[in-house]
Input
Amino acid sequence: MKRRRTEIADVLARETGSTISFATFQQDLVAATLQEAAAWVFRPKGEVLQTNQPGLHSIGVRRPLGVVASFTPWNGANILSWRAVISPVAAGNTVVVKPSEFSPISAGLMLADIAEEAGFPKGVINVVSHAPGAAAEIADVFFESPDVRVINLIGGVKTARMLQSGRVER
Output
């Protein structure tokens, strides 16, 4: 990320219309987020939780769920895609990220390229890009797949409500 900072910021600015300064700021934030996430894998796997029952306790255990499908927006494209990917991966999951059709390179293809260059195993981080108007078909596949255990949406309330109801506008 750090080595390709300027290249990614240039693509992000061209693709999303952001300023170079905002695109560069995003790259610095991505690098800091990735450094922090690298430490997450060494955190304890569980924790004791408070309960409302005297004399009882609960234990929360973190474990991978499997495949996480992430829908990411065009604004803040690169940082928000990394955030949608890195937390599930640090928890031991695989991710299929579907970036906005307005930022398929900065929020998807470059992310996958950097992950591969960094040594992530094949199949851990996957990207499905698409043309305008094709998001509904991809969402349908995600929702119908028994392999997809979690849907991660970084987006608007309108989109979340459509996804929740199973009605994605075409």
Notes: The chain has a mean pLDDT of 86. The first strand starts at residue 46 and ends at 49.
